[in-house]
Amino acid sequence: MVKRNRNIGRLKAAYLFPEIARLRREFAAQHPDAKIISMGVGNTTEPILPHIAAGLTEGARRLERAETYSGYADEGLAELREQISGVYYKVAFGIDEIFISDGSKCDIGRLQTLFGPEVNIAVQDPSYPVYVDGSVVIGAAGKDDTASGGGYSGIRYLPCTPENNYFPDLSNIENDSIIYFCSPNNPTGAAADKRQLSSLVAAALRTGSIIVYDAAYSDYIRDGALPKTIYEIPDADKCAIEVNSFSKSAGFTGVRLGWSVVPKGLRFAGGESVNADWSRLTSTIFNGASNIAQYGGLAALDGEGQREIRQMTDFYLENASLIRGALNTLKIDCVGGDNSPYIWARFPGRASWEVFAELLEKYHIVTTPGSGFGPAGESFIRFSAFSHRAGIEEACRRLTAR
Amino acid sequence: MVKRNRNIGRLKAAYLFPEIARLRREFAAQHPDAKIISMGVGNTTEPILPHIAAGLTEGARRLERAETYSGYADEGLAELREQISGVYYKVAFGIDEIFISDGSKCDIGRLQTLFGPEVNIAVQDPSYPVYVDGSVVIGAAGKDDTASGGGYSGIRYLPCTPENNYFPDLSNIENDSIIYFCSPNNPTGAAADKRQLSSLVAAALRTGSIIVYDAAYSDYIRDGALPKTIYEIPDADKCAIEVNSFSKSAGFTGVRLGWSVVPKGLRFAGGESVNADWSRLTSTIFNGASNIAQYGGLAALDGEGQREIRQMTDFYLENASLIRGALNTLKIDCVGGDNSPYIWARFPGRASWEVFAELLEKYHIVTTPGSGFGPAGESFIRFSAFSHRAGIEEACRRLTAR
What we know:
Chain A is an alpha/beta fold.
């Protein structure tokens, strides 16, 4: 009989967010009257604003007219790729360097397939689970020794802690690594500045590594001095791929639309083009994002769409500000929430899952335990600002009521 | 520097269909006045019919209203999974055995990641490229020796030829294999009957193999005696995964919606649940199909939607019939087109790419060279019925004009 893929066997039993959803359902079943408030998953809650929504509706309608019907558009609409290059990269990239996707998580999974099992891996610790879990799946993570608290043996964890202001020490990145780096960060909410990102690019160039830069929260940056893309750093186009998404900015978590940037200057050790391999891989195992979603994306990139993205991200940032206010009142040490929709709160000496359980049982609030994001997340809790305003306000009242 | 993934290096330089698109573009540039007719890619051309289209539009509109907005729906709408189980499987499967996807090709890529590099592979030859190419990408295909005409060393090719009536000899499937099987077949158009599929299931059970049954064209079956799903065969739920899609039936090639069935009875050698691993994997590296597409899928599954699918597939089958008629007039030996949208035409003693070039240069018709689907496809051409009626009629006129 067919043997189980041992890489899958090395995964922890459950992906973090379905596990949290399961615990929530269990609690709800036991406490049918509890009004549970979700501040757990980074799932958008607010309806898509009118202009962008009209783009989606028009995208759907185009499919019922012979003149505008379209089938496969594997490589993505040329106009959408052009607009992304213009709006996010000041036309620094050609459309054949911008690849339309069904979202960053899926793209990261495919990037892991691109790089294969034999690369070294470095991740911020804590980090969004797909960097580690996807590396495990493809066989690049080595044996699991999470039992010893050390994570996977084949992965270099780069702790991001209060002590280093949530920007990691880059000196112990191995040569020839794939470095997953997310800024503004999920889960810590930390947004790296120009000096920090310059040191990241320098570290990648020094070690012959490739950065996979996850900019999914770039539209939450409000501090004008902070870079919104890794390509604001000179020479990043020689060592970095960027992934981004409309999920958190336009409310497209359920619509599925994102992109990757793979510069033509990026090369493997033997001189082979990373861009050419990515193009070959995506045409082989992917069939493109929904063309309906792509018309929504086009609307999101024009002047009115960009104003709506600002309005949407402002709303969630106001939620974040309310959460921070409540945590400040409680004198709970926290960061994030100013240039990101996540607040990272510290509960010294306590286990994350224990605090998670207490918040659920006592306040009926669902959060995410920091240890779910990696060893250095232990004793932290991630609060997500993706929730309705009334829920956030009620959660803050419950938390601060004495 | 990061080394290129050697599995990617083993792929042929270009994926078949982008390569054909490139040749078409080149020809068009050299012959700007040529009215090129596409009978190449299996890309739908007809607008989505009104009821299903209204489902898509409603799906888009739901996202702009607070009461109906939805974000991530990784596992797919429960109602959609229920409907698929009801319409396609007579409720033989629970909704946790039906997984919603963004299409079969993408699902097959993820299934290859699920099984990993250490499985044996068997494929119909010729076959849809992703079975082989995706196996190469994940490292399950061994070294390429296509130069010797033998395909990849780690893949067992099962020739489907006129001599065996396009159903392969199953006696040389290795133990513990993943068997990719597509019926109605792309590219040959052959639809396996009950006796043939029973022998396939028996072969899988005998060899401890898992069938990945690609039923993407099942809605084209008109012969009532032919099985529309592998699960019409007893015990298939112990040895088979089925993938299917709305692409070719409802015109969703650009919408992106499909599903996989992974029965709970399916086990790996150590007794581990394939269903549980698939659930874990898809929640890790996938984020679900667009919820807009899913509302379109719901519409496609009700009575009116099913009537529209019948109307749409009838249209393409009429195209197929016209193509067969023209080839018969020319006394070109061909099969398919009766229970499938593809016609497989034989040009004895000639190379597929040579015939492809002749059809393009002489008749301005784009087809697909059979050798692109595997060694046994040499000297065949695939004609696709996915084209506008006027184009099909004009192509037939050009081919039969003397």
